[in-house]
Specification:
The chain has one helix at 72-84, and strands at 10-14, 20-22, 26-36, 58-68, 88-94, 98-113, 119-127, 132-135. By secondary structure, the chain is mainly beta. The protein has one domain (6-135): Pnp Oxidase, Chain A, CATH 2.30.110. Strands 1, 2, 3, 4, 5, 6, 7 and 8 form an eight-stranded antiparallel beta sheet that branches. Strand 6 (98-113) and strand 7 form a beta hairpin. It starts with 9 loop residues before the first strand and ends with a strand.
């Protein structure tokens, strides 16, 4: 995989019209696949080494980002999703890797600003169901 520009990584939220709206102003974006394995280690485990149960456990996707305000439409969608704690359809596009689309809940939304700086925000989303992955 060749080097990619971070600005090409996009986070999109589906609006009421069914269109994906890019979350504008993001400067940093993080995409994380998680799995919480099931530990089946017992006193019979060889030399006390941990054993894990294949195919079991909990999987999730976490998406986070930070940026500056740029677009009222995507800001409004994020605010609404947070206050309603509704499941929203999101899409994360990772260059030269693929697109992950699925249901998410906005788990954190914070705003900050400094005296002589810009107002900024941080957003965190956690998968709320099975995501679909499409490789490029």
């Amino acid at each position: 995989m060749a080097a990619q520009r971070g600005s090409d990584m996009l986070l999109k939220i589906k609006n009421d019209a069914g269109d994906y709206v890019t979350v504008a102003g993001l400067r940093t974006k993080n995409f994380r696949l998680n799995s919480r394995p099931v530990d089946i280690t017992d006193t019979g485990s060889v030399d006390g080494w941990k054993e894990l149960l294949p195919g079991a456990g909990t999987k999730s996707v976490e998406i986070s980002g930070a940026g500056v305000f740029r677009d009222g439409a995507s800001d409004a969608l994020m605010r609404q999703a947070f206050f309603e704690q509704s499941v929203i359809e999101c899409q994360c596009i990772i260059p030269d890797f693929g697109t992950l689309t699925g249901p998410f809940i906005l788990s954190a939304l914070s705003y900050s600003g400094t005296y002589q700086g810009e107002a900024s925000f941080d957003v965190s989303l956690v998968s709320a169901g099975v995501p679909q992955f499409a490789a490029f």
